[in-house]
């Protein structure tokens, strides 16, 4: 694949991002997840969205502090057309970002499924190779059990002593026995299985598949919640509901935090995958330290350009099987004529030899690079549309963070000036058309007592030659009825438990 592979443009752009350590020194951007400096550089890159989140929270905090410190009386306002246009536009923009993120999530999931299928295909190929190698051992054992009695029987000359073909039969059977007794084929395929251990990937694709399923479902649910948050805001605006708008303030602040945190995670993943996709073969080759394993890996990665590391071994095995099959056929022809009573046993031995003759070429075909190479190509599909989908999610998360920041600010600026209920009006407590309250009656009673004390003093002066003659208890003037009413109310209050 090295000669035909071209890294995608987005991988090149992500790979060229400056990789800095904690001291802000440039480091090598080659994909190396086991390197602490490389992981440190990814953490520094992830701090960029985190810094945007911190800055956003500080700006919102300053806004609320300014609102709290503002003691000027606020005139209740309605939702203006400008706020309506701003909120609807930003909500539509946020929904577009959510749609882009869901599209990217779908692309990543599809490519991850292909990657998992490729890993599983390589693992199944190796597992099937091991099963067939064990089956080869069983065929050899069964053939050995059939050969022992046949060789013993063929050592006895037939009734026709003049026929010397039983000597040739003995030689052919000896050649066949040497082939069956030899561990050469079994050892060769066992060695090949050990060389294929790098493609045993069950430990990887099983947990990776579970994580991917949880990630896919969780992302769909989380971005669905953001859509619901926008609906809460629109409902609150339509109903002029202060409570609903305050609810969105809480949800919107949570959405801002979640969006920027997701952007940090997506940025780490995108940069790491971009670095890997620059030279995926080089990274895999760096993980192999054995020369034989390196040849095997090169054979499957650069198929069909790389030489077959088992070419000589497989050719020798094929030649040995062909020789054994020819010996068996010649032995069958002679035994059918000289030892017709052993025909059934020779047929059973023939079944085992046929299985052996079919098994070895099948193992050879399964070891060809064309079998594993498509699975390897599938495992690298994340480098193309999958990486583009991850970048969609990164940009959508950042855009959603900005949109929800704007929505949070406009919403907070709206419910602060919005009344608790629609068409609710404050009523003046001193409205003359309302009946007097208990407090106003108490004040009137105190006033009446003070005025009564003044009237008694004036009556006393009148008896001694003051301005108002006469000792009538009635209150003079046009307010006589009012003071009589207040006097009755005063007596009622004094007799009650109000004081």
From TrEMBL:
Main location: membrane
Subcellular location: Cell membrane
Membrane keyword on record: yes
Keywords attached to this entry: Cell membrane, Chloride, Chloride channel, Glycoprotein, Ion channel, Ion transport, Membrane, Transmembrane, Transmembrane helix, Transport
Record-level Gene Ontology MF annotations: intracellularly calcium-gated chloride channel activity; volume-sensitive chloride channel activity
Function: Probable chloride channel.
Protein name, as recorded: Protein tweety homolog
Highest classification ranks of the organism: Eukaryota, Metazoa, Ecdysozoa, Arthropoda, Hexapoda
């Amino acid at each position: 694949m090295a000669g035909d592979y071209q890294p995608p443009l987005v991988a090149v752009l992500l790979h060229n991002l400056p990789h800095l350590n904690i001291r802000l020194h440039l480091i090598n951007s080659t994909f190396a997840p086991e390197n602490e400096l490389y992981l440190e550089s990814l953490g520094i890159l992830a701090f960029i969205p985190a810094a945007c989140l911190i800055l956003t929270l500080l700006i919102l905090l300053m806004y609320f502090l300014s609102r709290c410190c503002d003691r000027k009386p606020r005139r209740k306002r309605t939702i203006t057309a400008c706020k309506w246009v701003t909120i609807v536009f930003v909500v539509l923009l946020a929904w577009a970002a959510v749609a882009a993120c869901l599209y990217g999530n779908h692309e990543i999931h599809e490519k991850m499924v292909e990657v998992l299928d490729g890993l599983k295909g390589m693992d199944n190929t190796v597992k099937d190779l091991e099963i067939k190698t064990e089956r080869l051992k069983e065929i050899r054992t069964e053939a050995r059990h059939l050969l022992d009695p046949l060789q013993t029987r063929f050592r006895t000359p037939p009734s026709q002593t003049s026929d010397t073909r039983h000597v040739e039969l003995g030689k052919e059977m000896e050649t066949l026995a040497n082939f069956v007794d030899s561990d050469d084929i079994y050892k060769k395929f066992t060695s090949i299985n050990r060389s294929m251990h790098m493609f045993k990937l069950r430990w990887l694709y099983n947990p990776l598949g579970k994580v991917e399923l949880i990630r896919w479902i969780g992302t769909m649910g989380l971005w669905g919640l953001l859509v619901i948050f926008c609906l809460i805001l629109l409902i609150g605006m339509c109903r002029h509901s202060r409570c609903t708008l305050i609810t969105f303030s809480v949800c919107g602040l949570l959405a801002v935090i979640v969006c920027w945190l997701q952007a940090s995670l997506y940025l780490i993943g995108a940069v790491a995958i971009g670095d890997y996709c620059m030279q995926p073969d080089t990274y895999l080759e760096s993980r192999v330290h054995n020369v034989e394993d390196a040849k095997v890996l090169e054979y499957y990665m650069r198929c069909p350009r790389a030489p077959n590391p088992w070419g000589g071994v497989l050719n020798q095995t094929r030649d040995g099987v062909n020789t054994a099959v020819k010996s068996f056929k010649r032995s069958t022809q002679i035994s059918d004529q000289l030892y017709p009573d052993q025909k059934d046993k020779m047929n059973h031995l023939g079944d085992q030899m046929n299985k052996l003759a079919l098994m070895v070429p099948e193992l050879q075909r399964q070891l060809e690079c064309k079998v594993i190479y498509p699975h390897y190509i599938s495992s690298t599909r994340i480098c193309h549309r999958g990486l583009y989908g991850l970048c969609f999610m990164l940009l959508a998360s950042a855009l959603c963070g900005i949109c929800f920041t704007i929505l949070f600010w406009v919403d907070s600026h709206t419910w602060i000036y919005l009344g608790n209920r629609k068409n609710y009006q404050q009523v003046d407590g001193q409205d003359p058309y309302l009946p007097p309250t208990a407090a106003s009656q108490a004040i009137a009673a105190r006033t009446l007592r003070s005025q009564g004390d003044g009237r008694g003093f004036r009556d006393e002066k009148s008896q001694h030659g003051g301005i108002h003659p006469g000792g009538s208890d009635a209150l003079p003037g046009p307010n006589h009825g009012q003071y009589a009413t207040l006097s009755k109310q005063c007596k009622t209050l004094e007799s009650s438990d109000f004081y």
